[in-house]
Amino acid sequence: MTQWVHLLRDFCDLLSPRYCAICGSRLGTSEQKVCTRCLLTMPYVGDIDFNDNFVTRLFWGKLPVERGYSYMYYNRGDNSHNLLTQLKYVHRLDIGQWAGRMIANDLLPKGFFDGVECIVPVPLHWRRLLKRGYNQSEQLARGVAEVTGLPLLKGHVRRIRNNPTQTHKSAEERYENVKNLFRLRRRIPYRNVLLIDDVLTTGATMASCIKAILEVQPETRISVLTMAKA
Ligand SMILES: [Zn+2]
After folding, report:
1. What's the pTM?
2. How far is the CA of 228 from the centre of ligand 1 (A)?
3. CATH-assigned architecture of domain 45-229
């Protein structure tokens, strides 16, 4: 049976070849979205303590964050940049879901999702959503939900303002700048929530989202997962 599946895939590839989203080279039958060579050169973060790392430390002294993880480092000009560009600006919704599955497959056996009860993607402001046509964080979250079987909650948190310009601002100023970006629209029916976003920079936007939840549901335990850390 598997032989037939492989043959069918080979045949489909012959008729409609698939290409690597990063380097554009033709994908082999066992490769999905990104070729093995590009995957091998991704700047992965690798194994770290989920409770004490560069992600969780961004929130120390500000907000309680249980677990935190970014899957790769974001560096302008390298493969992580190319992948995020595909995800955010080239309408490759499939890249988001594929990356979400890849991340979840890696983190699931390591216990990252232990105790997590639901997934909430960081929402876009409706204007940006309208412009882009999709929320890239939601696509990532879909992939994670697919692998973990966790419920994906949409529409519970709303972004009420778009991000103001953050360039030339210090980390402290950024935190001030993004106050009240989000509002909890509907009560989250779980205590242990995983927030998912594409890129984490200073953590200011994420912090604003966490605050919006904790203001209404202070008993919530929050963990954070992003595809990249800038
Ligand atoms: Zn490639």
Report:
1. 0.90
2. 18
3. 3-Layer(aba) Sandwich (3.40)
